[in-house]
Design brief:
The chain has a single domain, classed as Immunoglobulins (Immunoglobulin-like, Sandwich), CATH 2.60.40. It is 4% helix and 51% strand. This is T cell receptor alpha variable 20.
Length: 125
């Protein structure tokens, strides 16, 4: 039985980039594979993996913060690398067919954060 696992990268503002590969992956049931997420030009704070089933919103899987850190949930295991992450799917089953997404937390500069502050009460009157 074949199935399809789809992934998309999450983009960030400016020069920051997050990419996932491969874009589409077809697996035979029981054969393991990996999904990779890489990032560049980012003031890194953490990397997160999500699973999105057809017709559903993304569901949180893992957060990784330190190079070499590993997390496992069932047949999924994610590892944080120096400029990315690898998520391995061991012995996939039909219920694993989904879109897998990665996202990266970044550190904003104080000047950028101030652009998004709420106005003080009465400031807009």
């Amino acid at each position: 039985m074949q199935k399809q696992l789809l992934r998309r990268g999450a983009g960030l503002y400016g020069e920051d980039q997050v990419e996932q590969s491969p874009e589409t992956l077809r697996l035979q049931e029981g054969y393991s594979s990996s999904i990779n997420c890489s990032y560049k030009d980012i003031n890194f704070r953490g990397l997160h993996w999500y699973k999105q089933d057809i017709g559903e919103g993304p569901r949180f899987l893992f957060s990784l913060y330190s190079v070499g850190e590993e997390k496992q949930k069932g047949r999924l295991r994610a590892t944080l690398l120096k400029k990315g992450s690898s998520m391995d799917l061991t012995a996939p089953k039909p219920e694993d067919s989904a879109t897998y997404l990665c996202a990266v937390d970044t550190q904003c500069s104080p000047s950028l954060r101030s652009l998004h502050q709420k106005p003080a009460p009465g400031a807009l009157e």
